């Protein structure tokens, strides 16, 4: 039987944590451990977990350390050969774990990640069927905001998996681990799952999509403001490219002219965090050069 560790992230999650944990402990397959990493919640999250779910292993951070570091903390103490990463606002359908573990057994041994079908909490709109890479080096959730009308019911390989609800093979995680963690903690949150997927792809690992396993995700349970998310998406995309892509000069110019320069101009006018992002991207470049010496 598959040995599974479920790592759940929480941050002021009292509104979400009970439905999430009820769906986890309501699974038919109970051969798993549950680890909850709390990023400095100031509401009733910890009390609800302690009183209602005493078997859950708790990691309590004094402040919000970001999703990447929190996931790493959970993975570090996990004993499973597979890790199921969950956001606190995800609810699993009945038999979710059995469906995806059955799919795993039929898959290539080089498949180190599995993506379920993630729907929004309306239960009829796609949130993510995996991550895809565009020619402009943009990452997208496959099917996002489209109706769940059967178009995304075919299993297959995808570029990467959305860490809001994703299975990771321990062997793969150890293979791609860096000094900055399984998930690169410099990303804080957003895009860190795409970075891990890209690193894994470069080492020969694959990501599979299992549409039979379905869960529901509210999204942005942390309540992060739009400007902050925009800043992190912009900054982390460049962290991602600088780490993983080897693009030639001509291709870089084409990408800049067609996408990046107009976008940068817009962000400079509308988001005060953009200058901060540019400074951090510059520091990232300098750090990368220092590591390569």
Structure description:
With 293 residues, the protein is of the alpha/beta class. It folds into 2 domains: 4-217, Spore Coat Polysaccharide Biosynthesis Protein SpsA, Chain A (Alpha-Beta Complex), CATH 3.90.550; 226-292, no CATH class. The chain has 9 helices and 12 strands. Strands 1, 2, 3, 4, 5, 6, 7, 10, 11 and 12 form a 10-stranded mixed sheet that branches. A two-stranded antiparallel ribbon has the order 8-9. A hairpin with a 5-residue loop joins strand 8 and strand 9 (139-141). The mean pLDDT is 91.
Quick tags:
single chain, 293 residues, alpha/beta, Spore Coat Polysaccharide Biosynthesis Protein SpsA, Chain A, 10-stranded mixed β-sheet, 9 helices, 41% helix
A few lines on this structure:
This protein has 293 residues and is of the alpha/beta class. It contains 9 helices and 12 strands.
Total domains, how many? 2
Kindly provide the name of the CATH class of the largest domain: Alpha Beta
Q: Tell how many strands the DSSP assignment holds.
A: 12
Under CATH, the topology of the largest domain can be stated as Spore Coat Polysaccharide Biosynthesis Protein SpsA, Chain A
Helix content: 40-55%
CATH superfamily of the largest domain, please? Spore Coat Polysaccharide Biosynthesis Protein SpsA, Chain A
H/E topology pattern: EHEHEHEEHEEEEEEHHEHHH
**Radius of gyration over all CA atoms, rounded:** 19 Å
How would you sum up the global shape? globular
Strand content: 15-25%
Please name the CATH architecture of the largest domain.
Alpha-Beta Complex
The main pleated sheet reads as:
10 strands, mixed
Average pLDDT value? Answer: 91
CA(first)-CA(last) distance: 46 Å
């Amino acid at each position: 039987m598959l040995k599974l560790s479920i790592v759940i992230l929480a941050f002021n999650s009292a509104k979400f944590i009970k439905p999430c944990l009820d769906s986890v402990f309501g699974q038919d397959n109970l051969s798993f451990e549950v680890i909850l990493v709390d990023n400095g919640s100031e509401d009733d999250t910890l009390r609800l977990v302690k009183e209602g779910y005493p078997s859950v292993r708790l990691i309590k951070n004094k402040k919000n350390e970001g999703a990447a570091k929190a996931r790493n903390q959970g993975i570090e103490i996990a004993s499973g050969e597979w890790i199921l990463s969950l956001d606190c606002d995800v609810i699993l359908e009945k038999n979710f774990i059995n469906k995806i573990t059955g799919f795993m057994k039929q898959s290539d041994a080089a498949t180190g990640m599995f993506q379920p079908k993630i729907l929004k909490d309306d239960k009829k709109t796609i949130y993510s069927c995996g991550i895809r890479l565009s020619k402009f080096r943009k990452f997208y959730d496959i099917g996002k905001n489209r109706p769940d009308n059967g178009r995304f019911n075919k299993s297959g390989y995808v570029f990467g998996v959305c860490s809001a609800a994703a299975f990771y093979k321990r062997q793969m995680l150890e293979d791609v681990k860096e000094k900055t963690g399984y998930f690169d903690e410099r990303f804080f949150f957003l895009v860190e799952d795409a970075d891990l997927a890209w690193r894994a792809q470069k080492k020969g690992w694959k990501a599979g999509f299992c549409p039979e396993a379905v869960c529901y995700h509210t999204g942005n349970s942390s309540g992060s403001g739009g400007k902050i998310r925009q800043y992190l998406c912009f900054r982390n995309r460049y962290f991602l490219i600088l780490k993983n892509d080897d693009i030639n000069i001509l291709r870089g110019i084409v990408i800049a002219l067609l996408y990046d320069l107009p976008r940068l101009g817009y962000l400079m006018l509308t988001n005060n965090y953009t200058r901060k992002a540019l400074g951090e991207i510059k520091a990232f470049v300098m750090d990368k050069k220092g590591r390569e010496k």
